[in-house]
Amino acid sequence: xxxxxxxxxxxxxxxxxxxxxxxxxxxxxxxxxxxxxxxxxxxxxxxxxxxxxxxxxxxxxxxxxxxxxxxxxxxxxxxxxxxxxxxxxxxxxxxxxxxxxxxxxxxxxxxxxxxxxxxxxxxxxxxxxxxxxxxxxxxxxxxxxxxxxxxxxxxxxxxxxxxxxxxxxxxxxxxxxxxxxxxxxxxxxxxxxxxxxxxxxxxxxxxxxxxxxxxxxxxxxxxxxxxxxxxxxxxxxxxxxxxxxxxxxxxxxxxxxxxxxxxxxxxxxxxxxxxxxxxxxxxxxxxxxxxxxxxxxxxxxxxxxxxxxxxxxxxxxxxxxxxxxxxxxxxxxxxxxxxxxxxxxxxxxxxxxxxxxxxxxxxxxxxxxxxxxxxxxxxxxxxxxxxxxxxxxxxxxxxxxxxxxxxxxxxxxxxxxxxxxxxxxxxxxxxxxxxxxxxxxxxxxxxxxxxxxxxxxxxxxxxxxxxxxxxxxxxxxxxxxxxxxxxxxxxxxxxxxxxxxxxxxxxxxxxxxxxxxxxxxxxxxxxxxxxx
Length: 532
Ligand code: PHB
What we know:
Arc Repressor Mutant, subunit A; 3 domains; alpha+beta; 17 helices
């Protein structure tokens, strides 16, 4: 294994296939979600046959999709990051306040947690602007090049400072932080450099705020305030307002926006104080049951120890932030020995940490997920959209029914529908509606479905828009059950009767809609997924 020299040797009980699977997920994440199998082979240093089996297993789990020679991360992989974010609870409790502040200031607002000597974003309320580099949920930044960094560093132990110095020596240009541009050699005159980090940390302690004056790249400025855990007084996360020098200088941010950030943070801390105890969702018993069946079916191509190991991460969640080995085994349906080896592997990889009771015996030790779990696929998918989620499913559907399929939403005026994704069938005569094109809502199957107060399970139109065209549509619902889009298939009267549409197309439409919904619900749990 081509591990960097600084990587400690894995413990004897670590599960090698699980480590390889995690390495594949890391490389795909760094590559923005897509790599060819041969690029994966190079990036991981694994044998091609190993890469093939790992990717086949991840595909079976629904975490990657194989498009020809490319492996692509799918929205389902976000359930790993979701498990961490749900267990953390801060996004659920504070993201509403962060979004409201972003609206009030018309600037981006983020929430970040400490991750070793870095900071990792757990929420982003982003303003889309030409002049701004914006980070994604799950991105890791080196502490010394950010505003939250010095605030977290006020709590560092001497060992943590030593680890930071070692990292700075080994990676002076921040090449291990793919989310940031490499360190600029000559920072603009008068601006701080990362070498000032210790001074900035001392300076951050008493006023309890910190600035980033273009440490990441020219133009980018930020001001940050810690959100403290009301029980411990320690920093739970850091809230930042991010802007560009074309709108605010760093000094400007401090003078004009810091007071409003402080007010918002005080409200966040009050929210934490008043938060009801976490609701412990039902434990998802038997997560691991399906792995045996997959092994039977796929044989050598299915790496069961990888699939079993990954289910361990999804045992965590809201109200399940700290789990003992016994609880993990129960939640996953894995044998204790299997769950134990997976936890040992994750602890070695820094994805799981022993929570609180370090003194407790091994059986009673509680484990918790770390922010690093977000590096398993989350950032590239956190910017997806409903059309992007839908297209691979539309391809499968078009293939299955041999008709053009599309996704449509109602326009703002409410009297038209707009196609947002479309996969044509390869008939000479196919219904020609392109993404972006609009049609009258009341004469299309998708439109009629979206116009109804309580949408039907499906609608069918028969030559109403155009002679010869028959269309059938089913609803797509968001996490709350609201209908937000319609999935539609169009055919020609010469190809299928109305009855045949219902008999041959409707079941496939329905199952495709439920696949799209499953992806949408996973992706939108902690990120906003645009409908267009
Ligand atoms: C951000 O939220 O994008 C952000 C926050 C603090 C920084 C830089 C960027 O120092």
